[in-house]
Amino acid sequence: MTPAETRAESWSESDAAEAPASEPVAPPVGPGDRTPVGAARDADPGVAAATTDAAAPSGEAGGADVAARPRRWGRRRQDLTVFGLFLLAAVWVTSQIWVDPAGRVASLYSSDPAQVQFFLAHSVRVVLHGEFPFFTEQFNYPDGVNLMANTAILALGIPMVPVTLLFGPAVTFVVLVTLALAGTASAWYFVLSRHVVRSPLAAAVGGWFCGFSPAMLSHANWHPNIISQFLLPFIVWRVLVITRSRRPWRDGVLLALMVTAQAFINEEILLFTALACGVFLLAVLAQRPALWSTAWRPLAKALAICTVLAGSLLAYPLYVQFAGPMAYHGLSDAVRDYGNDIAAFFAPGSPTIGGDERANVNLAPNYSEENAFFGWSLALIAVGIVAWLRREMLVRALAATGAFFAVLSLGERVSWWDRELFTGPWEWLVRLPLLDAVVPTRFGLITSVVVGILLALAVERSRALPLERRTLRTLTVAGLVLALLPIAPMPLKVTSRPPVPDFITADRWRGYVGADQTLVPIPVPNMGHTHGMRWAASTNLDFKIPGGYFLAPRNGNTGDPGRFGGRPSGVGQLLEDVASTGRIPKLDDRQRRRSLDELRHWRAAILVLPVGQHHSEQLRRTVEQLVGPGRRELDVWVWDVRALTDRPT
Fold it and tell me: Residue span of the signal peptide, if any (predicted)?
């Protein structure tokens, strides 16, 4: 069941009855309807060739092929032009980070980029040292971190290992963000232009919004795993193709390979894709139940082989994720309750030309989760498109899909301008397996894709309006400007961050830290202080650190609900309080003994405090109460605690 089939609703039974008996009965092809070549080829690769051979007189096939070459080259140049424009737009969005990738970071939250850079450095160790890819002890030592239960982006990090080795994980991070935005827009353009619409402008508009929507821009500063959606258009199209495929086994294998790759980019987005395809197909079948009689056999065969193959490839990684060490079940209550405010759908996103960070306060969980924010004009235009094209089954199915996930994105408590109205349907779904690990506000990403496809269909259908060509062009451009200009992307806002200390980059730490010991950054790495993770990433994780920013079971007990960070740490909390307040506590012997026990548990070799750290003097004096005086080395204070923490052999 492809979009071509859903667009065929305009073909009536009377048309079929009037068709000559000698001709195949098929939906008419008009300005808004086109049987996709790709779908026909997937259904039966011999159909196109047989039709061409039967229609072309002997000796003319070669001439037709020659005539087709300029058209193919024209299409390729057109595609390359669109891809290039998308890449330029992505560079524009990330331009402020490109100025200094290692020294600049998102202005509001710096934790997620540091975590991603740590994961990128882990990919280097996987490739160069054969390290186990799904678990690491290089941070949160000695408990370690379950990387499958976090977002280790192995499918992105491993191909980027040469870039990480040459330029460092900070450069790799901005490269991934740039390519993710441009690649997602290009992938949607490609699928839309080949299988859904004929107009290059329509496909480009749809691809643009899918790649540069406010939701995508919101995640761009922090979550390259979420915005790397370039496989999704092909997964969606393959799911629709297999409903009419004559080669379901082959199509099932192709789908399994794409599903497996996406699982190592972001599992949550893969789950969203599966849910969206399911809801869309149900919306189609609700309107035309007769389609099920021809669709269920190829669909069942393809999904069976997909499940077997993808399940085999992912069985062990998923075992590690859900039953391996440091596995957790479900997210913390704070994240689980993240939902969009209804008003968020009518406000422009913060990273857009019409956006206002102060106006968007409390409309989203935070600025990295603005998963709606279409603005008034686009929201009304999207509703208008559905009303205009409501006779098309495809549009009705898309509208139902977008609305369904928009409602789910409101979370457990539905609110309007931060005023709680009533309980949302997510309250009844949040405890289901798999869904208990979903951040509900991100369902708005599905609605964004639906809006992008609706925009493409609207531009395509407008070509058939009974208006003078110049008037039609003017109205189309005016509509696009009204819809897209208020949410046009702006360069992501960044701020400077402290450089990795010379003590680290000059490898002076190697004289202290052994393979089974840790370097303890001050403050101890946690969700709010991730600079120590960047230090380790800059060395490709050649030393271990305690703590860090990651998801793990509460108190380190495998199977408990997830939380940010590892086991509670007394010395970590002590130094966190000093770093935040600047107040030096008076420590007693009991606190010193407990702190030393923790350092022994971490097998700490040295404690390192950058001279330029905020409240560094207060931190230095606090650490001296714990382990005695340190010494200045290059741009850090160093405390060699090996004599205190080495266990007797």
Answer: none
Burial class (CB in 10 A: 0-12, 13-18, 19+), 449: buried
* pLDDT surpassing 70 at residue 17: no
CA-based torsion, 54, 55, 59, 60: positive or negative: negative
From residue 355, give the alpha-carbon distance in Å to each of 97, 131, 352, 383, 495: 20, 44, 5, 21, 19
Q: What are phi and psi of 135, to 5 degrees?
A: -155, 145
d(CA 321, CA 141): 18
Whole-number pLDDT of residue 107: 83
β-sheet bridge partners, residue 604: 518
pLDDT tens digits, 228-245: 999 999 999 999 999 988
Both tokens assigned to 422 = 């009533």
Q: SS3 for 289?
A: helix
CB neighbours of residue 246 within 10 Å: 13
Find out whether 485 and 91 touch, Cβ atoms under 8 Å.
Answer: no
Whether 346 and 363 have beta carbons less than 8 Å apart is answered as: no
SS3 assignment, position 422:
strand
Q: Would you list the DSSP string of 137-194?
A: -SSSTTT-EESTTTT--HHHHTTTHHHHHHH-HHHHHHHHHHHHHHHHHHHHHHHHHH
Of 181, 112, 164, 2, give the one whose Cα is nearest residue 367: 112
The closest of 218, 228, 212 to 261, measured between CA atoms, is 228
What stretches of 288-367 show up as alpha helix (H) in DSSP?
292-323, 333-336
pTM for this structure?
A: 0.88
Q: Which one-letter amino acid corresponds to residue 566?
A: G
User: Which residues are CB-neighbours of 27 under 8 A, at least 6 positions away?
Assistant: 4, 7, 8, 10, 11, 33, 35
How many residues can be counted in the chain?
649
Q: How far apart are CA 489 and CA 213, in angstroms?
A: 8
Q: Where along the chain do its domains lie?
A: 75-104+153-485, 502-645
More confident position, 65 or 230 = 230
- Token readout for 396 is 């009705």
49-68: b or e for each residue (b if 16 or more CB lie within 10 Å)? eeeeeeeeeeeeeeeeeeee
pLDDT digits (tens, 9 = 90+) for 252-277: 999 999 999 999 999 999 999 999 99
DSSP bridge pairs for 58: none
Q: Distance (Å, rounded) from C-alpha 605 to C-alpha 573?
A: 20
Q: Choose among 457, 534, 537, 43: nearest CA to 242.
A: 43
Phi-psi region of 438 (alpha: psi -120 to 50; beta: other; left: phi over 0): beta
Token pair, residue 439, equals 């951040």
Pairing of strands 413-416, 419-423: antiparallel
Give 55's pLDDT tier (boundaries 50, 70, 90): very low
Q: DSSP letters along 18-54, please?
A: HS-TTS------BTTB---HHHHHHH-HHHHHHHHHH
Structure-model confidence comparison of residues 52 and 579, the more confident one: 579
